[in-house]
């Protein structure tokens, strides 16, 4: 399929990109919804993960790269940067964007089967933090991520961008309430370690000195931290030792520190 020069922004083949919101992409198209990948690196990681591309928008030198990545059967659209920005609502700083089909989410039990270190995100609402945590998970070596119903979607554009596409590599899925999640983690042999400021919390340094064989590290929302239900579900409450009167870190930074200590 040749590269298609955009002549009309009303072309229905461009619908995936036409000022599409994350929520609209998730809920409106395809069997499981769509997501947007920005940059050739992220697109390449998506393809390696087995995700199905639908279309690509590319600028200048990125056109040949896009065609090489997706092959002849996926339409690659091109046009002036100003025109593409008018279509999408934002500038294509990374040269290309692609629409891809969301894969079905796996069952939580399947993700836990061979895992030793997992991260549970409770109500983390900022996609930037979600993406940064996934990048640390991929780099430091946790095996999977579980996210609660109110947690920001890891397939949102900003989360994928901040994660450098690692959201598309790290196994993850949604979980339900804490009663069922606690039962699942316990049945799967996990020690639940909640990262929180609380009376009686154990120092991360001490906890990491003799860690359990399988650990589920639970991190809470920005500002308020973990809910009472999450704290009640924990086997151990863990706190990062700090100096100079600082009592907490950004949730993404805290996740990286705790994962490194427990790796």
From TrEMBL:
Residues 118-260 form the tRNA/rRNA methyltransferase SpoU type domain. InterPro entries: Alpha/beta_knot_MTases, Ribosomal_eL30-like_sf, rRNA_Methyltransferase, SpoU_MeTrfase, tRNA_m1G_MTases_N. GO terms for molecular function: methyltransferase activity. Keywords: Methyltransferase, Transferase. Pfam families: SpoU_methylase (PF00588). GO terms for biological process: methylation. Gene3D superfamilies: 3.40.1280.10. PANTHER family: RRNA METHYLASE, RRNA METHYLTRANSFERASE 3. This is RNA methyltransferase. It comes from Leifsonella bigeumensis.
């Amino acid at each position: 399929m040749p590269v298609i020069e955009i002549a009309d922004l009303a072309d229905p083949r461009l619908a995936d990109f036409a000022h599409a919101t994350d929520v609209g992409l998730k809920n409106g198209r395809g069997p499981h919804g769509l997501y947007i990948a920005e940059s050739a690196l992220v697109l390449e990681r998506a393809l390696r993960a087995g995700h199905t591309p639908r279309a690509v928008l590319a600028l200048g030198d990125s056109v040949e790269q896009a065609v090489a990545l997706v092959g002849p059967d996926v339409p690659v659209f091109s046009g002036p940067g100003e025109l593409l920005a008018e279509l999408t609502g934002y500038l294509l700083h990374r040269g290309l964007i692609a629409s891809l089909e969301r894969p079905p989410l796996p069952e939580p039990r399947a993700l836990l089967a061979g895992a030793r270190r997992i991260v549970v995100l409770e109500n983390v609402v900022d996609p930037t933090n979600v993406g940064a945590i996934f990048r640390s998970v991929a780099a430091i070596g946790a095996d999977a991520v579980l996210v609660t119903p109110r947690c920001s979607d890891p397939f949102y554009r900003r989360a994928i961008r901040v994660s450098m596409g690692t959201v598309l590599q790290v196994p993850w899925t949604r979980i339900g309430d804490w009663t069922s999640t606690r039962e699942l983690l316990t049945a799967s042999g996990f020690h639940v370690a909640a990262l929180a400021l609380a009376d009686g919390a154990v120092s991360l340094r001490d906890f990491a000195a003799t860690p359990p064989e399988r650990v589920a590290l639970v991190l809470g929302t920005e500002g308020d931290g973990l809910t009472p239900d999450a704290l009640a579900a924990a086997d151990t409450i863990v706190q990062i030792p700090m100096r100079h009167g600082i009592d907490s870190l950004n949730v993404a930074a805290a996740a990286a520190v705790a994962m490194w200590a427990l790796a």
